[in-house]
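Lab notebook page, bench 4
Experiment: in silico fold of construct C2
Operator: M.H.
Input chain length: 449 residues
Purpose: comparison with the prior construct
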Amino acid sequence: MNKAVTVYPIVIDDILSNPGIGFTAAPGLMGNPDRIYDNRGEEQKKYKFTEDSRTYNHPDSKVYFCSVRWRDLETVKGVYNWEALEEKLDYAQSIGCTAVVRCSPYALSEEDDIPAWFRAEHPEEPDFPFWRVDPKETPYVLYWSNLIKAFAARFDGHPVISSVDLTIVGAWGEGGGTEFLEPEAIRQITDAYFDGFKITPLQALLHDSQSIKIMKDRKAKVGFRVDCLGDMGGFHGQEWSHMTDFYPQNIQNFNMGDAWEKAPILFEACWHMNDWYLQGWDINYIIQETLKWHISSFNNKATVVPEPWKENIKAWLNKMGYRFEIRKFMYDSVVKAGGELEIRALWANVGVAPMYNRYPLVVRLIGQDQTYTLHSREDIRGWLPDEDIAWEESFSLPGGMSEGEYRLEIGIETGVEEIGNIRLAIEGYTQGYYPMGKLFVEREEEGNG
């Protein structure tokens, strides 16, 4: 590299809202609500995490949890009403969010039953907790697999979907009773997900060893989610808790300790964070466990964060998911139109997880009358935390570039205007990109050679 410019960007510790990571959005706390109430109906003093935050008593977010019911998606057997999901994805996009999507087979209330046509086929509910239809004695596995195949064919790679929950059976698809299914039945459903979703990341409920083993045997890229984060003894006093007696053991026993390297790890609050606070549970212990497990996002059920925990949550957000810094950036100060631009940079991912969506790293050259966007060949999904990331690449420049000075910018593009580009943990964010400096483009003199 000749005539190189070297830049040392200034690292920041600001909270960064980025796609697929952090707290899920709390739309009811966005804007300027007159009053703020906690989950128990008690009015709370209003506060913000940052001066420019658009959400009160809760961090801003670029990820939204989107659940759709089977009965709404398949109102007629074999006919799929995707508008029910597309409307929710449009809403997520309108508030600047990507979406974690779950198709739910049924839940516990009558309005959350299986589709009416399926209920007409099998009017009797099984005498089993969390099963509204017997998956062993009915065509449930076939019907549900068919829905998942159609779901994947329509939505794999959707630019707004950050990941999809792999649901098998049970209320809300949360796995109740999975362990009582035959392995082949589980495999039929999980194969529908793995065969269909080749682009969009998947996570499965960390519920039972049988279903996780089936997924692991296939060597599929699948993360996990848990839905009772924070429980430090709310079910059986202090004798048993999810945080000390279930999650650590099952992550190890199910061999899911390295799942985070290829697919996301998501958590949902047990009850609400406000309940943790009122119980006097140790928020720092809960946070540190999630970081150990390589959390990407946390569903706080769109309820308030206790203000005394504000600084704890800020520190959590600055480690959750991916967080990219540029430590050093070098590039050619003079290049030729039609020639090569060489770039070398030292990056760091100071979060606890990689990025799971294929967002392109780009270099932009902005001249007086033209902007050129150069796409990197680097797949930044492989940028794991706690590793030096030495990026070196040569970019071919268009032959028709005008001679003159250009501003060099770098960015990671999502391709969705409302969501915007990825924010880095450095100063200089300007309309989605980070200026690194200037370079001069020369043109070959006509007749040379």
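Observations: DSSP finds eleven helices and 19 strands in the chain. The CA atoms of residues 70 and 105 lie 5 Å apart.
Next step: discuss at group meeting.
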